Amino acid sequence: MRHPRTARSTGGGRVNVGDELPPLQVHITRDQLIRYAGASLDFNRIHWNERFATAVGLPDVIAHGMLTMALAGRMVTDWLGDPARLVDFSTRFTRPVVVPDTEEGALVELTGKVGALTEDGLARVDLVVTFEGKTVLGKPQALVRPA
């Protein structure tokens, strides 16, 4: 099967294999972890209690994996301009994001680019999500429908 090299973009232009999404940098703070715990109902103490986190072998409090995944999804939907164009999203959680008890918190950096286009007009977006220079999500990919 031959794969096309371009598809329609959200703005009516073309999306090409290799096109890069605008990068995103997010500081995750302990305050945000508490708010996310309330929204997700995930009150596991590793996400807010330093003493508990270190007692179970973690270096400190860690961000919710689903929060990190949501940041990657946000990057894609911001680029699309319409969250309904996100068809599928998958990843593996490979490394925790350690969130220090500071004003800055943990800096998570996200990049992405169009990795492939399908015959039916979908685009696969390959993402890279890092903390302290190391990837924290394994093979995060979004399948999207450009306009």
From TrEMBL:
SUPFAM superfamilies: Thioesterase/thiol ester dehydrase-isomerase. It comes from the Bacteria. InterPro entries: HotDog_dom_sf, MaoC-like_dom. Residues 1-20 are annotated as: Disordered. Pfam families: MaoC_dehydratas (PF01575). Residues 24-111 form the MaoC-like domain. CDD domains: SAV4209_like (cd03453). Belongs to the enoyl-CoA hydratase/isomerase family. This is Dehydratase. It comes from Amycolatopsis panacis.
